[in-house]
Structure formats: structure tokens, C-alpha cells
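Researcher: Here's the sequence for the chain we discussed earlier.
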Amino acid sequence: MPIPQKVIEGEGQFRLGKDFTIAVIGVNHPRLYKGATRMLRRLSDRTGLFFPQDFVTPDSDKAGAMIIEVNRVGDVKLYEDESYSLSVSPAAIRLTAETDIGALRGLETVLQLLHADAQGYYFPGVEIEDAPRFPWRGLLVDVSRHWMPVEVIKRNLDGLAAVKMNVLHWHLSEDQGFRVECVTFPRLHELGSDGFYYTQTQIREIIDYAADRGIRVVPEFDIPGHSTSWFVGYPQYASQPGPYSIER
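Model: Thanks. This is the structure I predict for it:
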């Protein structure tokens, strides 16, 4: 999911065995190798098969059972090319894309194609041409009203990647809390968060985690309305005299 733009059913099946390997041709970027490695590990989790190639690197064999060919590194931005082509035959799987981000989307499709029967696991023969219908495919996460730890944000990002979404709309301030460590105005997070906020290091970590999955993080700070948490520490900037307290 979502349904690809064009699907042509093929003949036969590609049988998955413990000797399954992935080869990357073309672009040399850590994001693509990390994505291929995640795919192998998720396949292992789903099938119980142990794949000896547990980490895909530029030095990996170039003659794998699955070939990924990419022309260039994509930018994590709107209107980037996220298209891909996928061919599955009994002999091999071939994934081609203009950008590494498109290849990441194709890897999710490969995982969704996994089937099982009495003989084991397989990918059905198919030819797929796919590209997103909408450039912005996002999820709004409101951590101001409902605090979420870093690991929960990462789990949401994994879910976004699995269904080929590309924007995390991160709602970071509200009457109920200001959730970002602010070096310039530290009382924003010190007094306006009940102690629940993301440090600068954690924010960078989440942005990097998202970028590895081809996802753009769009932060939102609600102002001038819904800004009570701002004025707990800095009431002088409000239109009415304080004191102020976080809404609960």
C-alpha cells in the first residue's frame, strides 16, 4: 500500500532462501545501504530465515539475487522524484529508481509482496511502475497536548516509511506545553513543559532518523494563538498581564 500506479502480473515466483542477497549498483550513499539492510532484517523477522548478508555496504557483492540500481541521491524535499520500477521473476528481483528515495519506496513494496505456501516463502512474479500521486503525504503528530518519547516518534516514522509517506508534521507548541529545548529563551521549555521536552540533540536525532527513511520533518510552533505555554516563562510578551500557567 498504497496501490501502485501500474501492476502487470507475471509468471512464476521468486523463491526466498537463506542465500538471498542484495546488490546495490550506481549511487553510493549510506541512506540506501541502511534501507537495504533494514529490509533484510525485516525479512528475517517475518520468515525466520537467517541471511548471512546482514549489513549491506558498498563492498557487498554486485551479483545479488536482488539488484537495486539508482542514478542519484535524492533530496528530502517536496517534488523530489520518488518513482521506481520493480521486476520480479523466478530468476531475480530488480529494483530501479532515479533517486535513492524512490528505491526506499520500492523496498517497501517488495516487503509487501512477501507470500508463503507449503514450500516456504516467495515473491510472486510481477512488473510494477509506481510514483506517488501527492507530493505531500504526511502525518500530524501533536506532542504538545499528548507527549511522546523519542522512541515513539521513531516508531511513527517507521510506520510512515512502511506506507511510503514522506512528511512528519511535528506539532511542538500549544497551550498545554512547549516541547523544544530553547537555548535563547530557556524558560520556554524550563517552565512551559512540565519537564517533557526534546533536547537539541534529540531533535537532530529524530531529523536524521527521518531523513534515513526519506521523510521530511516539518516543525510547527503555534503562534499567536494557542501560546499560553510561551507566557508561563515570559509573561511580558503577552497582550494581557500574567501570571500564566500551562493548560491541563
